[in-house]
Amino acid sequence: MDRLIYTAMTGASESLEQQAVVANNLANASTTGFRAQLANFRDAPLSFGDGTTVNNDTTRTFALTATPGSDFAPGAVSQTGNPLDVAITGPGWLSVQTADGDEAYTRAGNLHTDENGQLVTASNLPVLGTGGPISVPPGATVTIGKDGTVSALGAGDQPSQIVVLDQLKLVNPDPATMTRGDDGLFRTTDGQPADADPTVTVAQGALEGSNVNPVAAMVSMITNARQFQMQTKMLQAADQNDQTANQLLSFT
Protein backbone atom coordinates (compact mmCIF):
# COMPACT_ATOMS: atom_id res chain seq x y z
CA MET A 1 0.00 0.00 0.00
CA ASP A 2 2.91 2.32 0.66
CA ARG A 3 3.67 2.20 -3.07
CA LEU A 4 0.33 3.85 -3.87
CA ILE A 5 0.84 6.46 -1.14
CA TYR A 6 4.35 7.30 -2.34
CA THR A 7 3.31 7.65 -5.98
CA ALA A 8 0.26 9.77 -5.15
CA MET A 9 2.26 11.96 -2.75
CA THR A 10 4.98 12.79 -5.27
CA GLY A 11 2.37 13.33 -7.99
CA ALA A 12 0.50 15.81 -5.80
CA SER A 13 3.73 17.62 -4.94
CA GLU A 14 4.71 18.05 -8.59
CA SER A 15 1.19 19.20 -9.49
CA LEU A 16 1.53 21.99 -6.93
CA GLU A 17 4.94 22.91 -8.35
CA GLN A 18 3.56 23.09 -11.86
CA GLN A 19 0.61 25.15 -10.65
CA ALA A 20 3.05 27.68 -9.17
CA VAL A 21 4.87 27.97 -12.51
CA VAL A 22 1.63 28.48 -14.44
CA ALA A 23 0.42 31.05 -11.90
CA ASN A 24 3.66 32.99 -12.29
CA ASN A 25 3.28 32.92 -16.08
CA LEU A 26 -0.28 34.17 -15.83
CA ALA A 27 0.77 36.96 -13.48
CA ASN A 28 3.28 38.11 -16.11
CA ALA A 29 0.93 37.92 -19.09
CA SER A 30 1.25 41.69 -19.52
CA THR A 31 4.94 42.04 -18.56
CA THR A 32 7.08 43.51 -21.32
CA GLY A 33 9.40 40.95 -22.93
CA PHE A 34 8.49 38.17 -20.48
CA ARG A 35 9.32 34.59 -21.50
CA ALA A 36 6.98 31.91 -20.20
CA GLN A 37 8.46 29.28 -17.91
CA LEU A 38 8.04 25.62 -18.77
CA ALA A 39 7.45 23.00 -16.08
CA ASN A 40 8.53 19.53 -17.18
CA PHE A 41 8.06 16.37 -15.14
CA ARG A 42 8.81 12.72 -15.73
CA ASP A 43 8.27 9.38 -14.10
CA ALA A 44 11.23 7.88 -12.26
CA PRO A 45 11.11 4.14 -11.46
CA LEU A 46 12.75 3.30 -8.14
CA SER A 47 14.63 0.01 -8.30
CA PHE A 48 16.85 -2.08 -6.05
CA GLY A 49 19.48 -4.65 -6.87
CA ASP A 50 23.10 -4.72 -7.90
CA GLY A 51 22.73 -2.20 -10.73
CA THR A 52 22.17 -4.67 -13.54
CA THR A 53 18.98 -4.82 -15.59
CA VAL A 54 18.44 -8.51 -14.86
CA ASN A 55 18.60 -8.31 -11.08
CA ASN A 56 16.99 -4.90 -10.61
CA ASP A 57 13.36 -4.91 -9.52
CA THR A 58 11.17 -1.80 -9.82
CA THR A 59 9.32 -1.20 -6.56
CA ARG A 60 7.82 2.25 -7.09
CA THR A 61 7.40 4.92 -9.74
CA PHE A 62 7.32 8.50 -8.59
CA ALA A 63 7.09 11.93 -10.23
CA LEU A 64 10.29 13.92 -10.62
CA THR A 65 10.99 17.43 -11.85
CA ALA A 66 12.81 17.36 -15.18
CA THR A 67 15.06 20.10 -16.49
CA PRO A 68 13.02 23.34 -16.36
CA GLY A 69 13.09 25.57 -19.38
CA SER A 70 11.62 28.66 -20.99
CA ASP A 71 9.47 29.34 -24.01
CA PHE A 72 11.55 31.49 -26.37
CA ALA A 73 8.74 32.14 -28.85
CA PRO A 74 8.39 35.86 -29.67
CA GLY A 75 5.66 37.99 -28.16
CA ALA A 76 3.40 40.46 -29.92
CA VAL A 77 5.01 43.80 -30.82
CA SER A 78 3.05 47.01 -30.28
CA GLN A 79 3.90 50.55 -31.34
CA THR A 80 4.33 53.05 -28.50
CA GLY A 81 5.89 56.08 -30.19
CA ASN A 82 8.31 56.49 -27.29
CA PRO A 83 11.79 57.05 -28.81
CA LEU A 84 13.44 55.14 -25.95
CA ASP A 85 11.30 52.03 -26.44
CA VAL A 86 12.92 49.29 -28.50
CA ALA A 87 11.71 45.85 -29.54
CA ILE A 88 14.02 43.09 -30.70
CA THR A 89 12.94 42.00 -34.18
CA GLY A 90 13.50 38.26 -34.38
CA PRO A 91 15.95 36.36 -32.17
CA GLY A 92 18.25 38.30 -29.90
CA TRP A 93 18.64 40.01 -26.54
CA LEU A 94 19.50 43.35 -24.98
CA SER A 95 22.51 43.33 -22.66
CA VAL A 96 22.21 44.89 -19.21
CA GLN A 97 24.46 45.25 -16.19
CA THR A 98 23.19 43.70 -12.97
CA ALA A 99 23.67 45.15 -9.49
CA ASP A 100 26.72 42.92 -8.91
CA GLY A 101 28.34 44.09 -12.13
CA ASP A 102 27.66 40.97 -14.17
CA GLU A 103 26.12 40.91 -17.62
CA ALA A 104 22.60 39.62 -18.17
CA TYR A 105 20.06 39.62 -20.99
CA THR A 106 16.47 40.70 -21.45
CA ARG A 107 13.87 41.31 -24.16
CA ALA A 108 12.21 44.13 -22.19
CA GLY A 109 13.03 47.27 -24.17
CA ASN A 110 11.07 49.86 -22.17
CA LEU A 111 14.09 52.07 -21.54
CA HIS A 112 14.53 55.49 -19.96
CA THR A 113 17.30 57.72 -18.64
CA ASP A 114 17.95 57.92 -14.91
CA GLU A 115 19.03 60.90 -12.81
CA ASN A 116 22.64 60.30 -13.85
CA GLY A 117 21.80 60.38 -17.54
CA GLN A 118 22.39 56.65 -18.03
CA LEU A 119 20.16 54.63 -20.33
CA VAL A 120 18.47 52.06 -18.08
CA THR A 121 15.70 49.48 -18.15
CA ALA A 122 12.38 49.72 -16.30
CA SER A 123 14.18 48.00 -13.38
CA ASN A 124 16.87 50.72 -13.47
CA LEU A 125 19.57 48.37 -14.74
CA PRO A 126 22.14 50.08 -17.01
CA VAL A 127 21.86 49.12 -20.67
CA LEU A 128 25.20 48.03 -22.08
CA GLY A 129 26.76 49.27 -25.28
CA THR A 130 30.02 48.32 -26.91
CA GLY A 131 31.86 50.47 -24.37
CA GLY A 132 29.85 49.70 -21.24
CA PRO A 133 26.81 51.58 -19.86
CA ILE A 134 25.43 54.25 -22.18
CA SER A 135 25.19 57.86 -21.01
CA VAL A 136 22.87 60.42 -22.64
CA PRO A 137 23.54 64.20 -22.50
CA PRO A 138 20.92 66.17 -20.55
CA GLY A 139 18.02 67.40 -22.68
CA ALA A 140 19.21 65.55 -25.79
CA THR A 141 16.83 63.92 -28.23
CA VAL A 142 17.79 60.25 -28.57
CA THR A 143 17.47 58.15 -31.70
CA ILE A 144 18.07 54.41 -31.74
CA GLY A 145 18.82 52.91 -35.14
CA LYS A 146 17.87 49.51 -36.47
CA ASP A 147 21.34 48.17 -35.67
CA GLY A 148 21.16 49.53 -32.12
CA THR A 149 23.17 52.70 -32.78
CA VAL A 150 22.29 55.31 -30.13
CA SER A 151 22.50 58.90 -31.39
CA ALA A 152 21.75 62.17 -29.64
CA LEU A 153 20.87 65.66 -30.82
CA GLY A 154 21.27 68.44 -28.30
CA ALA A 155 18.57 71.02 -27.69
CA GLY A 156 18.83 73.74 -30.34
CA ASP A 157 21.41 71.86 -32.40
CA GLN A 158 21.10 71.44 -36.14
CA PRO A 159 20.28 67.97 -37.53
CA SER A 160 23.81 67.85 -38.96
CA GLN A 161 25.20 68.04 -35.41
CA ILE A 162 23.79 64.69 -34.33
CA VAL A 163 26.33 62.67 -32.31
CA VAL A 164 26.66 58.88 -32.11
CA LEU A 165 26.90 57.95 -28.43
CA ASP A 166 27.33 54.19 -28.63
CA GLN A 167 25.67 51.06 -29.96
CA LEU A 168 23.46 48.73 -27.97
CA LYS A 169 25.16 45.41 -27.28
CA LEU A 170 22.77 43.01 -28.99
CA VAL A 171 23.51 39.32 -28.54
CA ASN A 172 22.00 36.09 -29.79
CA PRO A 173 23.44 33.09 -27.91
CA ASP A 174 22.02 29.59 -28.36
CA PRO A 175 18.87 29.34 -26.19
CA ALA A 176 20.13 25.97 -24.95
CA THR A 177 23.08 27.77 -23.32
CA MET A 178 20.91 30.27 -21.44
CA THR A 179 19.34 30.02 -18.02
CA ARG A 180 16.76 32.19 -16.24
CA GLY A 181 17.69 33.80 -12.94
CA ASP A 182 15.41 34.53 -10.00
CA ASP A 183 15.40 38.17 -11.11
CA GLY A 184 13.80 37.22 -14.45
CA LEU A 185 16.98 37.98 -16.42
CA PHE A 186 18.75 35.42 -18.57
CA ARG A 187 22.43 34.53 -18.36
CA THR A 188 24.75 32.15 -20.14
CA THR A 189 25.19 28.84 -18.34
CA ASP A 190 28.98 29.19 -18.29
CA GLY A 191 28.77 32.70 -16.82
CA GLN A 192 30.75 34.23 -19.67
CA PRO A 193 29.43 37.33 -21.52
CA ALA A 194 27.95 36.56 -24.93
CA ASP A 195 29.50 38.10 -28.02
CA ALA A 196 27.71 40.92 -29.81
CA ASP A 197 25.80 39.75 -32.88
CA PRO A 198 25.56 42.29 -35.74
CA THR A 199 22.60 40.42 -37.27
CA VAL A 200 20.29 41.30 -34.36
CA THR A 201 18.09 44.30 -35.09
CA VAL A 202 15.66 46.46 -33.13
CA ALA A 203 12.62 48.59 -33.87
CA GLN A 204 12.46 52.01 -32.21
CA GLY A 205 9.22 53.22 -30.66
CA ALA A 206 7.89 49.69 -30.12
CA LEU A 207 7.74 47.11 -27.34
CA GLU A 208 7.47 43.34 -27.35
CA GLY A 209 4.86 41.96 -25.00
CA SER A 210 4.84 38.74 -23.01
CA ASN A 211 4.60 35.47 -24.94
CA VAL A 212 2.25 33.98 -22.33
CA ASN A 213 -1.10 32.82 -23.71
CA PRO A 214 -3.60 33.68 -20.93
CA VAL A 215 -6.23 31.24 -22.19
CA ALA A 216 -3.76 28.35 -22.34
CA ALA A 217 -2.46 29.28 -18.89
CA MET A 218 -5.98 29.22 -17.43
CA VAL A 219 -6.63 25.79 -18.97
CA SER A 220 -3.34 24.54 -17.49
CA MET A 221 -4.35 25.81 -14.05
CA ILE A 222 -7.65 23.94 -14.24
CA THR A 223 -5.87 20.77 -15.41
CA ASN A 224 -3.32 20.97 -12.60
CA ALA A 225 -6.09 21.49 -10.04
CA ARG A 226 -7.89 18.39 -11.30
CA GLN A 227 -4.67 16.37 -11.22
CA PHE A 228 -3.97 17.46 -7.65
CA GLN A 229 -7.52 16.54 -6.66
CA MET A 230 -7.07 13.11 -8.23
CA GLN A 231 -3.82 12.51 -6.34
CA THR A 232 -5.34 13.50 -3.00
CA LYS A 233 -8.26 11.14 -3.61
CA MET A 234 -5.76 8.35 -4.21
CA LEU A 235 -4.17 9.16 -0.85
CA GLN A 236 -7.58 9.01 0.82
CA ALA A 237 -8.33 5.70 -0.89
CA ALA A 238 -5.01 4.27 0.29
CA ASP A 239 -5.75 5.40 3.85
CA GLN A 240 -9.20 3.79 3.75
CA ASN A 241 -7.73 0.54 2.40
CA ASP A 242 -5.18 0.52 5.23
CA GLN A 243 -7.91 0.99 7.83
CA THR A 244 -10.01 -1.81 6.30
CA ALA A 245 -7.00 -4.14 6.20
CA ASN A 246 -6.22 -3.40 9.86
CA GLN A 247 -9.79 -4.22 10.84
CA LEU A 248 -9.67 -7.54 8.98
CA LEU A 249 -6.35 -8.46 10.56
CA SER A 250 -7.67 -7.62 14.03
CA PHE A 251 -10.29 -10.41 13.65
CA THR A 252 -7.71 -13.10 12.83
Question: Could you explain the architecture of this structure?
Answer:
β17 and β18 (186-188) form a beta hairpin. The strands form nine sheets. This protein has a three-stranded antiparallel beta sheet, with no helix packed on it. α1 (2-27) runs antiparallel to α2. The chain has two domains: 2-70 and 212-250, no CATH class; 77-208, no CATH class. By secondary structure, the chain is an alpha+beta fold. The model has no long low-confidence stretch (mean pLDDT 86). It contains two helices and 20 strands. InterPro entries: Flag_bb_rod_N, Flagellar_basal_body_rod_CS, Flagellar_FlgE/F/G, Flg_bb/hook_C_dom, FlgE/F/G-like, FlgF, LlgE_F_G-like_D1.
Quick tags:
three-stranded antiparallel sheet, 2 helices, 25% helix, bacterial flagellum, elongated, single chain, alpha+beta, 252 residues
Write the layout of secondary structure elements.
Elements: H1 2-27, E1 37-38, E2 41-48, E3 57-65, E4 69-70, E5 77-79, E6 86-89, E7 93-97, E8 103-106, E9 112-113, E10 119-120, E11 128-129, E12 132-133, E13 141-144, E14 149-153, E15 163-167, E16 170-171, E17 178-180, E18 186-188, E19 201-204, E20 206-208, H2 214-250
Antiparallel strand pairs: 1-4, 2-3, 5-20, 6-19, 7-8, 7-16, 9-10, 11-12, 13-14, 14-15, 17-18
Helix pairs in contact: 1-2
